[in-house]
Design brief:
alpha+beta, two-stranded parallel sheet, 9 helices, 8 strands
Length: 433
């Protein structure tokens, strides 16, 4: 059997009853404090900084072949047999002296110093490693700017979600107030029960929208917390700065060419690749080094002394290495071409990113201006409809439709503010600020 209108109205009223459960209040940070915490706690930024330290370690290793090396050693030797012989000594007036060829056992210590004198390929490889280190540092700066822009966009998104929740709560209040007005009209004999059902249905729909808006707000706050390296929601209020001038694409593109860390990283990659190519070609040249050693042992040497020193100068000129140098040269030449192509592609991508960001800011600004006008007009229309319903001129559907348009306009305004804030953050990121 079909339900009576009063029973259906009661069920809708029960469904529209306010939910008393609320999520715990999240931690609130200003945008400036959040950016500082991002520098200290971001796990992604920590990974980027670790890659810079790794590159610094590789750079230090590449420098090692160009620097002196000092080693110390100790040894103990026991032989199966000892070999000695006697010979006349001029020092002792012809008396025999014993010369040790192979002692039975001996303890010895030694130290050696090697100094590279001419190692052209090692010098260029060390310079290439330093360029790679600077490139890694520029890449870390790019990650840092990307994270800061993402945090600003998340802040504007969270603020927009808060405004949507507030607009939805106002829409719920308006729908419930309209339901009460319809009930009063029914009680006074000037209305019909259908108007009550329509208003209650609208209230239920708005409560559904409110639940979704609150869930979106929680997700936005949790995303902000994740960016800060936290597994908890964080609230970061953000507001647009009034009176921002219209962006100049040409000027911003010139600024981006000098500020973007990705372009610096690409330039350093070119330098590293070209130095690796030069180093590969310099491997055809000879290398010169000098070394010295001191030594001492418990048994005398054939010279009759228990200690001594030695100095050598070594020249090495590899004539043929089985094609290794040629292969290394071809590899380095291809890597240099790849680095130059990647740098050019990065410059084109930066130009496109700046132009897209400028266009997005212009569009978002225009949408915000239109959304503000739409809210003003929708607010006036909703007020007029409510006065008309109270005076018996407008129907309940007219009021519900006007309230719905006002709600959609307020949601659109919140979305437009968030989009403009995100577009401005993306523009700063594209310029490299």
């Amino acid at each position: 059997m079909a339900r009576s209108l009063p029973a259906l109205a009661a069920s809708l009223a029960l469904a529209a009853a306010p939910c008393t459960a609320r999520a715990a209040e999240p931690r609130t940070l200003t945008l400036e404090d959040a950016l500082l915490e991002l520098e200290a706690r971001s796990l992604t930024l920590e990974q980027a900084r670790s890659r810079v330290e790794q590159a610094a370690g590789v750079s230090r290793q590449a420098l090692a072949p160009s620097l002196p090396t000092l080693t110390a050693a100790g040894n103990y030797t026991r032989n199966s047999d000892a070999a000695l012989f006697s010979r006349p000594s001029a020092i002792t007036g012809g008396a025999a002296e014993t010369v040790v060829i192979q002692p039975q056992q001996v303890f010895g210590v030694s130290g050696a110093l090697r100094v590279p004198l001419i190692v052209p390929s090692a010098w260029l490889e060390a310079a290439a490693a330093r360029s790679a280190e600077r490139g890694a540092s520029a890449s870390a700066d790019a990650v840092r700017l990307q994270l800061r822009a993402a945090l600003r966009q998340a802040a504007f998104g969270g603020t927009g979600a808060e405004e949507v929740v507030a607009a939805t709560e106002r829409a719920v209040d308006s729908a419930e107030e309209q339901a009460r007005s319809a009930e009063r009209a029914v009680a006074a004999g000037t209305g019909v029960p259908l108007a009550v059902l329509q208003a209650r249905t609208e209230a239920v729909r708005r409560r559904s929208d409110l639940a979704r808006a609150r869930a979106d707000l929680e997700r936005a706050r949790l995303a902000s917390g994740v960016l800060l390296g936290r597994a908890e929601p964080v609230r970061i209020p953000a507001a647009l700065e009034p009176g921002a001038p219209a962006p100049d694409a040409r000027a911003l593109l010139e600024e981006a060419q000098g500020r973007r860390p990705e372009l610096r990283a690409a330039t350093e990659q070119i330098a590293a690749a070209e130095r690796q190519l030069t180093a590969a070609r310099l491997r055809w040249l000879p290398q010169l080094s000098a070394s010295g050693a001191v030594f001492a042992q418990t048994e005398p040497l054939p010279t009759g002394q228990e200690d001594g020193w030695r100095v050598t100068v070594d020249a090495t000129w590899p004539i043929f290495e089985g094609g290794a140098r040629e292969g290394r040269s071809h590899q380095a030449e291809a890597a240099a071409r790849e680095a130059r192509a990647a740098a050019e592609a990065e410059r084109v991508a930066v130009a496109q990113e700046v132009e897209d960001a400028v266009r997005d800011v212009d569009v978002a600004g225009e949408r915000l201006r239109l959304a503000e006008d739409q809210v003003t007009l929708a607010g006036e229309a909703a007020a007029t409809a409510r006065r008309g319903f109270a005076g018996g001129v407008s129907s309940s559907l007219d009021v519900l439709d006007a309230n719905d348009r006002l709600y959609q306009a307020e949601v659109g305004l919140a979305d437009s503010r968030a989009r403009l804030g995100a577009a401005l953050a993306a523009l700063d990121r594209a310029v490299g600020r």
